[in-house]
Design goal:
Layout (H helix, E strand, L loop, with lengths): L1 E5 L5 H9 L2 E5 L3 E5 L11 E4 L2 H9 L1 H7 L4 E4 L1 H9 L4 E5 L2 H11 L5 E6 L5 H8 L4 E11 L10 E4 L2 H8 L8 E4 L2 H7 L6 E3 L5 H13 L1
Parallel strand pairs: 1-2, 1-9, 4-5, 4-7, 5-6, 7-8, 9-10, 10-11
Antiparallel strand pairs: 3-8
Helix pairs in contact: 2-4, 5-6, 7-8
Length: 221
């Protein structure tokens, strides 16, 4: 049986798919999310951008942020981020696959709007860069930070699944990349993995289904 290590706790659907295909699975979270305290908030922008599910959870748990977000058009990155927003009664007007796609969409279709961008401290800055270069007002609001949460992993795993550069960093503190093949959700995560190994596969698009396909394809070859 092929053993896999996931560097975060998986959704039940993704886990079930792997188990049905006879993979053995160990899950450990190699990051922890810490909300930032004493935020300085402004209500001057017309629309909201959320970078992740973590940003949504922290924002909606904060009554002051939630009051700024309610009833405003929301743009977000990732289907799961959108699903969480919808479940909490928020109006999602655009879901993008990644920050670059969202930046291009806003540049083409909403250049006269202004945006509050709720995000973490560690992020790719292409969204802010593209909007700023095109003189579209964007105000980053850093509401959490992602910290490494290292574990020592015992035993051999044929594959290790990574979802973020922070997860790569947390894993690398105590563990080797030498005897495992790495499966990466996206190109930013793959860039972090390449510092340690060239044995990696990137999902065609950054979602669980494509990540699953990349895993099964590799081991069926």
């Amino acid at each position: 049986m092929t053993r896999l290590l996931s560097t975060k706790i998986l959704s039940q659907g993704f886990k079930d798919r792997l188990l049905k295909h006879s993979f053995s699975l160990v899950e450990k979270s190699f990051i922890k999310i810490s909300p930032i305290q004493n935020l300085k908030l402004s209500d001057s922008n017309q629309a909201i951008i959320f970078s992740s599910q973590n940003a949504v959870k922290i924002a909606l748990d904060n009554s002051e942020i939630k009051s700024l977000v309610d009833q405003k058009p929301i743009y977000c990155i990732g289907k799961k981020t959108a699903l969480l927003l919808n479940k909490n009664g928020q109006k999602v007007v655009k879901i993008a696959q990644n920050s670059s796609d969202l930046a291009l969409f806003i540049q083409k279709n909403h250049k006269n709007e202004s945006f509050s961008f709720f995000c973490g401290k560690s992020r790719v800055n292409d969204l802010e860069h593209v909007l700023s270069v095109n003189e579209i007002p964007i105000q980053p609001v850093e509401i959490y930070e992602t910290l490494p949460h290292p574990h020592i992993v015992k035993g051999h795993f044929e594959g290790t699944i990574f979802f973020s550069p922070s997860g790569v960093k947390g894993y690398a503190i105590h563990n080797s990349f030498e005897d495992t093949h790495c499966f990466c959700l996206g190109s930013t995560t793959a860039k972090a993995v390449r510092k340690f190994t060239t044995k990696l596969t990137i999902a065609k698009t950054p979602d669980e289904l494509q990540l699953f396909y990349s895993i099964t394809k590799h081991f069926n070859q």
